[in-house]
Automatic annotation (TrEMBL):
<dbReference type="Pfam" id="PF00270">
    <property type="entry name" value="DEAD"/>
</dbReference>
<dbReference type="GO" id="GO:0003676">
    <property type="term" value="F:nucleic acid binding"/>
</dbReference>
<keyword id="KW-0051">Antiviral defense</keyword>
<dbReference type="GO" id="GO:0005524">
    <property type="term" value="F:ATP binding"/>
</dbReference>
<dbReference type="InterPro" id="IPR001650">
    <property type="entry name" value="Helicase_C-like"/>
</dbReference>
<dbReference type="GO" id="GO:0004519">
    <property type="term" value="F:endonuclease activity"/>
</dbReference>
<keyword id="KW-0540">Nuclease</keyword>
<keyword id="KW-0255">Endonuclease</keyword>
<keyword id="KW-0547">Nucleotide-binding</keyword>
<dbReference type="GO" id="GO:0051607">
    <property type="term" value="P:defense response to virus"/>
</dbReference>
<dbReference type="InterPro" id="IPR038257">
    <property type="entry name" value="CRISPR-assoc_Cas3_HD_sf"/>
</dbReference>
<dbReference type="GO" id="GO:0016787">
    <property type="term" value="F:hydrolase activity"/>
</dbReference>
<protein>
    <submittedName>
        <fullName>CRISPR-associated helicase Cas3/CRISPR-associated endonuclease Cas3-HD</fullName>
    </submittedName>
</protein>
<keyword id="KW-0347">Helicase</keyword>
<feature type="domain" description="HD Cas3-type">
    <location>
        <begin position="1"/>
        <end position="210"/>
    </location>
</feature>
<dbReference type="GO" id="GO:0004386">
    <property type="term" value="F:helicase activity"/>
</dbReference>
<dbReference type="InterPro" id="IPR027417">
    <property type="entry name" value="P-loop_NTPase"/>
</dbReference>
Length: 782
């Protein structure tokens, strides 16, 4: 039986409960055919085939039950349509709602008739007696099911869809344009259909998958002390320094502003880099959880989302340490979820500890079955603005949650309007609290709903004096830049240097020049270096084993490293600010750190490296802001960043947001051949060109994991078996995988089952131990 989940304002509780009863009863009706029963006896050996599929027949039955039950309701056609589509697509991804009117063919009708005629209805009636009792009252009149009755339903289905199609096209509530006279989105109600449908679809998906894989799991209320982070701070006392005094002051100020939660649900924390934002945000979130629990009787799930995979582990490990101080262990308390997360889920302690199978663990982790979830922007936003079955299964778990969006400025400007309206809808209709955390607060929320400031940002930015930023936008090639800093590097044995470039090629070129100028090791970081080596090098940098590092902008993605001097090739203002966060983070040096902004161009001097990867609008805005600045103090940065984001929003591509908002409004989940945008066009990470994944057999561990991968591919014929086995090695496997852009004429290693493979015997041909994959003949970013 499906649970109605947590109360939401866009569903009448009674109607929602009745819909869920119908979905629960009907969604597996098609499994009554002998074709499916034969398949399920041995799914690893039996191929399903069209006759063994059950979703379409189940959808027809669900549609008929909903149509009969809701006859006379104002939204009867909509409710019946939602039931039909939810059941039809509960084992796949969503399509455009309008496509559902066109995809019931004569072949589908013949197939369903054959399925129905194969069912033993006398046996079915006996088997389903317990389920019939759970149907909404009044539906018993449409029972019992007979072959003749279902044949009529099937033969009438195309006409039913034609009628709904006509209603859908004429439905003013759905068809009203999202864009008003001032090019601003119109009333909030236009997102109702999207949220209504996804909510019941998500509940169905979660119940269906849980019934099969994780029946014994139940979420229990867990008491989490509101003083949890306070205790952690006491246990790990910050040394008394000027910067730590500011950290403590900010922490207490944010904590003391909990009373603002009586006035709203949208908050923001804006603090300079290195000011302890993460601990302060968690402390506020736990206190807010306690407050909402007391007021509503429902424990909110805390979802902490970050834009970069590189900082997930760091954030998760800190939180795990915090939880363990209270004796809170197990994945029902805390999980991390991203595409490389370990498929391991445990709950309980000692003799009562339960360890779930890899398949069940994957279901629990992907379903966010935990009190606190640490995840990525991709996982969160592709749940909010989604069409994939695997993501939408957890959509209903967002209700009554506390969502912390760390480094929110990483969200592309073109999606700001989209994010604002979707997040505002959740706040107003799903009892969601949102906490925005950043050192560079973008202007995402405008109009009536402004975030409550949890901390006086100006006070802290105004007192920061850790760095001086020098701006020199005179165009130089990489070799000219290297020549210009030779003198600076001499006699600077006590200083550390970080050089950040926009492309792998420019970073490699400078690295090869730098190693000739300094007589000591230089760390090189880019996505062309396998993750295992990158992680080791970052650890060594933190341990001060390198004084020089050359990197692409991947180090700006929350990587907690610290240098005395940073050089950053020209980039948008928010990226420059992130680079500045790698300089004198703790303010421990005798003098201020120095961040140098330079302007590198290719050898022909016709195009900058920045222009290869960033859009011209953001670069032009930054250039205007920095023009004639020469020297900038840290205390000035907040005003410059505010100015940048204001210009960025004014000049941003709002049309992309509006087109996606219309797709949500029209339930156009997959654009297909439709020229209008679909929800599937939403991409937080947009690939540049064709890319290929390459496995590098770098060491003994890589050799072993590749052999395991080969064994899986060659000996697991069933897709689901292959998938389950691969999940157990996926994290280790991807430690040796790099993704590169493919250019014409590029020499690639041989391919095996979707991965190019560099064996240990080919390393010299394809992979340099310092610089990573050979990208000498093409440009690549990061």
């Amino acid at each position: 039986m499906l649970s109605a989940g947590r109360e939401v304002k866009f569903w009448d509780a009674g109607v929602l409960n009745d819909i869920l009863k119908i979905l629960s009863f009907a969604h597996d009706f098609g499994k009554a055919t002998p074709y499916f029963q034969k398949y399920i006896e041995n799914p690893y050996k039996q191929k399903s085939g069209p006759l063994a599929r059950h979703s379409l027949l189940s959808a027809v039955v669900g549609y008929r039950l909903a149509k009969y039950y809701f006859e006379g309701y104002r939204d009867a056609q909509k409710l019946s349509l939602f039931v039909y589509v939810a059941i039809k697509r509960h084992h796949g991804n969503l399509h455009s709602i309008e496509d559902e009117f066109l995809t019931f063919s004569d072949q589908d009708q013949d197939l369903l008739l054959k399925q129905v005629r194969s069912i033993d209805f006398s046996m079915l009636e006996e088997t389903w007696k317990p389920l019939v009792i759970q149907l909404p009252p009044g539906l018993s009149k449409i029972l019992p099911f007979t072959c003749e009755k279902l044949e009529i339903w099937i033969k009438d289905m195309q006409e039913e869809l034609n009628q709904i199609s006509l209603w859908w096209l004429l439905n003013e509530d759905k068809n009203q344009s999202f864009l008003g006279d001032k090019n601003e989105p119109q009333a909030e109600y236009s997102l109702d259909n999207y949220f209504k449908f996804l909510y019941i679809y998500s509940l169905l998906l979660d119940a269906d998958k849980s019934q099969v894989g994780i029946r014994e799991y139940h979420r229990n209320n867990v008491e989490i002390s509101l003083n949890l982070v306070d205790e952690y701070k006491k246990h790990n006392q910050w040394d008394s320094t000027g910067l730590n005094d500011f950290r403590n002051m900010a922490y207490e100020e944010i904590s003391d502003n909990l009373s603002l939660a009586d006035q709203g649900n949208l908050f923001k924390i804006t603090l300079p880099t290195g000011m302890g934002k993460t601990l302060a945000a968690y402390n506020f979130a736990f206190r807010l959880r306690d407050k909402r629990l007391k007021n509503r009787g429902i424990p909110p799930r805390i979802i902490y989302a970050l834009p970069f995979l590189s900082v997930i582990d760091q954030n998760y490990n800190v939180l795990s340490d915090i939880m363990e101080l209270q004796g809170l262990t197990g994945h029902n308390i805390l999980i991390k979820h991203h595409h490389l997360a370990d498929p391991v889920y445990t709950m309980g302690k000692g003799e009562d500890e339960i360890t779930y199978s890899p398949n069940a663990s994957k279901l629990l982790i992907e379903g966010w079955a935990s009190e606190v979830v640490v995840t990525t922007f991709v996982q969160l936003f592709e749940t909010l603005i989604g069409w994939r079955n695997s993501c939408l299964r957890r959509f209903h778990n967002l209700a009554h949650s506390i969502i912390v969006l760390d480094e929110i400025q990483a969200l592309p400007v073109s999606y700001w309007q989209l994010a604002q309206h979707v997040l505002e809808y959740m706040i107003n209709n799903m009892n969601v609290d949102i906490i925005l955390v950043t050192a560079t607060q973008p202007k995402i929320f405008t109009g009536d709903m402004n975030p409550f400031e949890l901390v006086n940002a100006e006070q802290y930015f105004g007192n920061m004096d850790r760095i001086a930023m020098k701006v020199d936008l005179f165009p130089r090639t990489v070799s000219e830049f290297a020549d210009s800093i030779k003198d600076e590097l001499q006699g600077q044995e006590r200083k550390s240097f970080l050089f950040i470039f926009n492309t792998i090629a420019s970073a490699k070129e400078f690295y090869q020049l730098l190693v000739k100028m300094v007589d000591e090791p230089v760390a090189f970081l880019s996505t062309g270096v396998v993750m295992k080596d990158r992680s080791l090098r970052i650890k060594d940098i933190k341990d001060k084993k390198y004084r020089f590092a050359v990197s692409t902008q991947l180090v700006e993605a929350g990587v907690d490293i610290d240098f005395d001097v940073v050089y950053r090739d020209f980039a948008p203002m928010d990226s420059i600010n992130q680079a500045a966060g790698r300089c004198n983070r703790n303010g421990l040096g005798e003098r201020r750190g120095v961040v140098n902004i330079i302007y590198l161009v290719r050898e022909n001097k016709k195009r900058s490296y920045a222009g290869l990867i960033y859009n011209n609008t953001s670069l032009d805005i930054t250039k205007r802001i920095l023009k004639d600045k020469g020297m900038i103090s840290e205390s000035e940065l907040l005003d410059l960043i505010d100015l940048y984001f204001q210009h960025a929003k004014d000049l941003g591509r709002a049309s992309e947001s509006f087109h996606l908002l219309e797709a949500l409004q029209n339930l156009r989940f997959n654009s297909g051949d439709n020229p209008d945008a679909g929800v599937n066009d939403f991409r937080l990470i947009k690939q540049r060109g064709n890319r290929v994944n390459i496995f590098v057999e770098l060491d003994r561990e890589a050799e072993e994991v590749w052999l395991e991968y080969e064994d899986i591919v060659q000996h697991c014929e069933d897709f689901y078996q292959r998938q389950e086995r691969f999940e157990t090695i996926k994290k280790d496997f991807y430690q040796y995988v790099i993704s590169v852009t493919v250019n014409e004429g590029m020499f690639l290693p041989p391919e095996f089952n979707n991965f190019c493979y560099v064996s240990k015997f080919q390393l010299k041909s394809y992979y340099d131990k310092n610089l990573g994959f050979d990208t000498s003949n093409y440009e690549n970013i990061f």
